[in-house]
Specification:
Blueprint (H helix, E strand, L loop, with lengths): L1 E6 L5 E5 L4 H10 L3 E2 L1 E5 L5 H12 L3 E5 L2 E5 L10 H4 L7 H10 L1 E5 L12 H9 L3 E5 L2 E5 L7 E3 L5 H12 L4 E5 L5 H12 L3 E3 L5 E5 L4 E2 L2 E3 L4 H13 L3 E5 L7 H10 L2 E4 L3 E5 L9 E2 L11 H8 L5 E5 L8 H8 L3 E5 L2 E5 L7 E3 L3 H13 L3 E5 L2 H4 L5 H6 L4 E6 L1
Parallel strand pairs: 2-16, 3-14, 4-15, 10-11, 19-20, 23-24
Antiparallel strand pairs: 1-24, 1-25, 4-6, 5-6, 7-9, 8-9, 11-13, 12-13, 16-18, 17-18, 20-22, 21-22
Helix pairs in contact: 1-2, 1-7, 4-6, 5-6, 6-7, 8-10, 8-12, 10-12, 11-12
Bound molecules: uridine-diphosphate-N-acetylglucosamine and phosphoenolpyruvate.
């Protein structure tokens, strides 16, 4: 089992480049199955989730080639409509097979997805959408089968602006007859990216990025070239790495408008952030002010940056409050941060975080962003931190140890 070892307490300096976004690349790769012929996708990050998704595409009969962040997907020989259970349960985004294959072929079977264990994560809103479009839903335990002779556009109101449900319904509706309206849709940048790719392939999706998405169905989509947006959560994580180590770092390849809620909070803490067209320069000088954060759907504070920000809040003056409203169980990092000396008290969906002296310890990544928060805490801590179960971190961070080593961190991956 691989572990990450960090010797903390060093300042960082220099530049870190941001990779393509995991949560945009995964639905876009699945949507490539909807296009006839070949798509070429650029800036696809090398991640465990991407590799797993490529295995799913191959198992369905698609041809793929993945090299240097360029992924070719050819759907000419696609001949299966069932996602192997072993692959489906490895990741959350496997459920995008539902929208993509139902949309193009009118049939799909998959198993309930895996992904981070951060709450219940039901798929009722996805299924509500597919049903409204005319799909028959057959469930056998964890296995879901969808079938439709034809899909017909409809008005679908989401009780919660779910990212996954918005994307899945958008994909299926792209090839339905007539118009579909998704009301109370999620507005995350990754949804806009998926809509842009679908439109490049010939879809007619309007309003992505607002809470009303209108989709006029088309008969076919054609594979095309497309470049994935930069990862706003990876960018946020490295911005916090500068803040937590009291350093100056340039984070390159960032769409600043995607991380405004994080930058606003960091500025309130007293961190200087200079923006330019390519990225941001972060200049941190302790002491930092305590700020409260509350996670919300986009453009609110991203739940995927909550754990990392909590690690930083152990290093500010006084006490800060972190409220998690998106997932019911997303404080897995707290017990691990406490092993490193963090003073955090959880009550319900809120955590009170106090200024703490972090000391290196042996800890476990309980999920992807919890793992990232331990890396950040390890960079700031006195002495050595060993992180176990780093496969979670590898689901979402391309080349994390090299990127941090290049800016002066003492971090390495070891086999044991
Ligand atoms: C692969 C991917 O892109 N993952 C992201 C996606 O996850 P995911 O798409 O799973 O997140 P959702 O936006 O769907 O979930 C938000 C909330 O809605 C609930 N819900 C969702 C669907 C449903 O049918 N019923 C229901 O009740 C969930 O349990 C959760 O409490 O968006 C989350 C919220 O920004 C991010 O943390 C994840 O990193
Ligand atoms: C929760 C996350 O991922 P997933 O939805 O793939 O589990 C994440 O990216 O933080």
């Amino acid at each position: 089992m691989k572990r990450i070892i960090i010797n903390g307490g060093n300042k960082l300096g220099g530049k870190i480049g941001i990779s393509g976004a995991k949560n945009a690349a995964l639905p876009v790769i699945m949507a490539a199955l909807m296009g006839q012929g070949e798509s070429i996708l650029y800036d696809v990050p090398h991640l465990r989730d991407v590799n797993n998704l490529i295995k799913i595409l191959n198992a369905l009969g698609a041809k793929t080639e993945f090299k240097d962040n360029r992924l070719l997907v050819n759907t000419n020989a696609l001949n299966k409509l069932e996602v192997p259970a072993k692959l489906a349960t490895q990741m959350r985004a496997s459920y995008y097979a539902l929208g993509a294959l139902l949309g193009r072929y009118g049939e799909v079977t998959t198993t309930l997805p895996g992904g981070c264990k951060i709450g219940r994560r039901p798929v009722d809103l996805h299924l509500k959408g597919f049903k409204a479009l005319g799909a028959e839903i057959n469930r056998d335990g964890c296995i879901i089968n969808l079938q439709a002779d034809k899909l017909i556009g409809d008005k679908i109101y989401l009780d919660y602006p779910s990212v996954g449900a918005t994307m899945n319904i958008m994909m299926a509706a792209t090839m339905a007859q007539g118009e579909t309206m998704i009301e109370n849709a999620a507005k995350e940048p990754e949804i806009v990216d998926l809509a842009s790719y679908l439109n490049v392939m010939g879809a007619k999706v309007k309003g992505a990025g607002t809470n009303l998405i209108r989709i006029q169905g088309v008969k076919k989509l054609q594979g095309r070239e497309y470049t994935i947006i930069p990862d706003r959560i990876e960018a946020g994580t490295y911005i916090i790495s500068a803040a937590i180590t009291n350093s100056q770092l340039y984070i390159d390849n960032v769409l600043v408008e995607h991380i405004n809620s994080l930058l606003a909070k960091l500025r309130e803490m007293g961190i200087k952030i200079k923006e330019d067209v390519n990225g941001v320069e972060v200049i941190a000088n302790k002491p930092l002010n305590a700020v409260d954060i509350k996670t919300l759907p986009y453009p609110g504070f991203a739940t995927d940056l909550q754990a990392q920000t909590m690690a930083l809040l152990t290093q500010v003056k006084g006490q800060a409050k972190v409220t998690e409203t998106v997932f019911e169980d997303r404080f897995g990092h707290v017990s691990q941060l406490k092993k490193m000396g963090a003073k955090i008290k959880v009550e319900g969906n809120a955590a009170a975080v106090q200024n703490s002296n972090l000391i290196g310890a042996r800890v476990k990544a309980t999920d992807l962003r919890a793992g990232a928060s331990l890396v950040l805490a390890g960079l700031a801590a006195e002495g050595q931190t060993e992180i176990e179960d780093i496969y979670h971190i590898k689901r979402g961070y391309e080349d994390i140890t090299n990127k941090l080593t290049n800016v002066g961190a003492k971090i390495k991956e070891v086999e044991q």
